[in-house]
Design brief:
3-stranded antiparallel β-sheet, alpha+beta, elongated
Amino acid sequence: MASRELSTHDAPKIAAAISQLAKIGLRPLYPDEEFPALAQDIAEEFEGTGIPDPPLPLTWFDLALTGPEKVFANAVHFQDHCFDVAGEEDYAGVVASIMALAEEEWPSATVSASSVQRQGRYGPIRRIEIVIHGEGSAPSFDLIADKDFDWSVVTLLNERLPSGATGRFAAFFDGDATIVYLKPEQIAALGKLFGYDFVTDVEPLEERPQWHISRETADAGSSRPLPLWALAIGLPIGLFAASQLAAMMLRGAPYAISGASRVAFATAPLEFLFLVAMYLGSVALFLGGPVYLIVRKLRAARRSPVRAA
């Protein structure tokens, strides 16, 4: 498909798209006479962006909904950016901004989010529990916490709309997400304008394997026999290193190891400091390691259930 760059000369086409969207039920936040200025801002924001040539039916409507400013009260555009480091407030904010599209039919509701652990397909997994408070409150629900946002929130909110609500939330995805709140017949009309359907039922985000060691896996490792051959080799090395360090400390400053020249740490050559570091590492590895393994084994044994004969 051929393409060209968007230019500011395309602003009238974007303005016409804003007018058409308003006619099918999207509620502009600005009077009609300001549509040309809004369209100019959008064209300047996206100038140089590649668009199909000739443009697709959705080109101008998509630009009208994804501009730098929110144009319609009942439509919102989201960058489906990485949510790996998103906090609870981020999830609550996204859900609240979607619910705000239905403010006339779902008034005075607030949203809170909290991180919870659930049993998932691959074991324990972090999820975000969404709670709707106030007038029009509804049963809580979970969203999968992942690098992308779980857009099944569209379906979950549709299931919790107050009785008597005439609209539905619907979404269009093109790498990002555009969410609208319209009556079913208006959603169908919007799909005809775009040339693609807005969907009201969205599958939950696919749960991904968790790349971490669960407590059960750790406990299983703790129940394995200790590697006696490794202990037999490592413990003498660790004890020797510990004895050298102890002897050095007992001599007091200035220090010496294995008959080396007595030195103070402030003026010690690099070789002496390296030798001290090597002994410290040997103590941590060859003495600390076995102690850690033994403690883990004992703790795992205490937690293991006693089975009846």
